[in-house]
Write a structure and sequence with these properties.
Radius of gyration: 16 Å
Helix content: 40-55%
Structural class: alpha/beta
Order of helices and strands: HEHEEEHEHEHHEHHEHEHEH
Catalytic activity: 2-deoxy-D-ribose 5-phosphate = D-glyceraldehyde 3-phosphate + acetaldehyde
Protein name: Deoxyribose-phosphate aldolase
Number of domains: 1
Enzyme class: lyase
CATH superfamily: Aldolase class I
Strand order of the largest sheet: 1-4-5-6-7-8-9-10
CATH architecture: Alpha-Beta Barrel
Shape: globular
CATH class: Alpha Beta
Number of helices: 11
Distance between the termini: 15 Å
CATH topology: TIM Barrel
Pfam families: DeoC
Number of strands: 10
Keywords: Lyase, Schiff base
């Protein structure tokens, strides 16, 4: 990646910490990293309990806070998705990453899965729906789930929680990007195991191929990762 490509990738990054072991100091350090010599990241993504702290740490930067909801197991519970999304927004989140009930989807209960997305949509200014493609596996299933999420109001479809099943893959990403293209609106987020600059560049190139040059922007494309920022800054020597 050249310097311009690295700077672009940083601006598309959802800087993430979802280990469950965070404390105040860790959240403060995460937010301090979000403003880089190459510009700000797209968002900082944390658990709901850390939204208020992250929002305070990011005050004045213009960097939004994203919170996960229905995470990580993807419960078939629209009320939970609505409640957690509403609480995160009340604490200052501008984006919500909600987990699709992928187990329900796999059993054919698409109505409940879509209801979870719609419930989060009712509260979230920007909604990303995590499909957990490593669990869905089958290309047709991934395509259908992406279409269902987009039809229920998702602003982005996202590959993975990063917990348990295999994370992002180029194969799943291509299917999801094609679903976005077919839907005519929406965005894509790669997350789960994206650790190197080369991997990040691969997803950017794939989106350019499927969606066409000029489509990629923070409003349409994100990469969710915890360690990738350090790799990108190392390329810059920053």
């Amino acid at each position: 990646m050249d310097r311009a490509a690295v700077a672009q990738a940083i601006g598309l990054l959802d800087l993430t910490s979802l280990s469950g072991e965070e404390d105040d100091a860790a959240i403060a350090a995460l937010c301090a990293k979000a403003s880089t010599p190459a510009g700000p990241v797209a968002a900082v993504c944390v658990e709901g309990r850390w939204v208020a702290r992250a929002r305070a740490e990011l005050e004045g930067t213009g960097i939004p806070v994203a919170a996960v909801a229905n995470f990580p197991e993807g419960a078939p519970d629209p009320d939970r998705a609505r409640r957690e999304s509403a609480a995160a927004v009340a604490d200052g989140a501008r984006e919500v990453d909600v987990v699709l009930p992928y187990s329900a989807w796999l059993t054919g209960d698409h109505a409940t899965a879509v209801a979870v997305v719609a419930a989060a949509r009712s509260e979230a200014p920007v909604l990303k729906v995590i499909l957990e493609t490593g669990a869905l596996k089958d290309p047709d299933t991934i395509r259908a789930a992406a279409g269902g999420a987009l039809g229920a109001g998702a602003d982005f479809v996202k590959t993975s929680t990063g917990k348990g099943p295999p994370g992002a893959s180029p194969e799943a990403a291509r299917i999801m990007l094609e679903a976005v293209r077919e839907h005519g609106a929406g965005g894509f987020k790669a997350s789960g195991g994206v650790r190197t600059a080369a991997q990040g560049a691969g997803y950017i190139a794939l989106a350019d191929e499927v969606m066409g040059p000029g489509w990629i922007a923070p409003q349409t494309f994100r990469i969710g990762a915890s360690g990738l920022l350090d790799e990108l800054l190392a390329v810059l020597g920053a």
